[in-house]
Amino acid sequence: MQIDILTLFPQMFQGPFSTGIFQRAIDREMVSVNIHNIRDYTYDKHHTVDDYAYGGGAGMVLKPEPIFEAVESVKSGVSLKKGGELPVILLTPQGRLFSQQIALELSRCSRLILICGRYEGVDERVREHLVTDEISIGDYVLSGGEIAAMVVVDAVVRLLPGVLGSEASPLDDSHSAGLLEYPQYTRPAVYRGWSVPDVLLSGNHAQIAKWRREQAIIRTLERRPELLGKANLNSEEKRLVNRLSTSP
Ligand code: ADE
User: Is 101 strand, coil or helix?
Assistant: First the structure.
């Protein structure tokens, strides 16, 4: 996967993409991330990227020209696989709310272009004529799209085949099956008198899988009950939810 990120603050991306699984994915050429400075696509003496809003009001608006030019330049670099689409995503609090489902959808693309918004906003023509998608990482306002872009890229890259050590592990993640993840334990079996549940030490894989599934359901019911509506529960599991929801 090739990811191109357009930003006014390239230095913000130095840390997150040079550690852990990310660095490994880059080293193994599973992903390449290119950071582009939007300011490099300005041609005036002062490298102007923003201007006052037509109609007045406080705050500056990002100009359309450098953003269009940056995206067009990045697009011209590499040819797409036949039939492949190239999402151009604006990070903005007005976008569709990011989720594990959207991460999975994006992980199937061979290329992504992410535009980090800044200041009071981006000229509307960028939205109308350049971007194909708008994503928000939550109902709060960050000072720019950079941290949101890092969140999106992290969630997507760890889903690429082979990036995590074990192929199976992203499927166990919270949210992957519409449920929060079950509790995890490691050694020691007893710590300060607190024991690991016996079933996990039993070696009985069927019992362990059953316990984990039940725990995931219980945890989801306690913390994020609204998720259960969309989770794929069998009739026995639905009875468990009913029993737990009605018990005092
Ligand atoms: N830019 C500012 N706030 C944002 C948010 N919540 N999500 C995505 N981009 C943003």
Answer: helix
Which of 62, 92, 150 gets mutated to test ligand 1 (max ligand atoms within 8 A of its CB)? 92
Give, for 154, the enclosing helix (H) or strand (E). helix 146-157
Q: Which residue has tokens 């997150």?
A: 16
Two tokens, residue 186: 């490691």
* pLDDT exceeds 70 at position 93: yes
β pairing state of 88-97 and 32-37? unpaired
Closest-CA residue, ligand 1 atom 10, reads: 92
Quote the pTM value.
0.92
Is 81's pLDDT higher than 90? no
Q: What is the tens place of the pLDDT at every residue in 6-43?
A: 999 999 999 888 888 888 899 999 999 999 999 999 99
Active site residue 65: no
- Sheet with 111-116, strands from edge to edge, namely 32-37, 2-7, 111-116, 88-97, 133-136
* Per-residue tokens: 71: 């995206």
Q: Which residues are within 8 A (CB) of 82 and not within 5 positions of it... i.e. 6 or more apart?
A: none
Q: Which of 120, 133, 172, 237 is catalytic?
A: 120
Structure tokens at 38: 């939007």
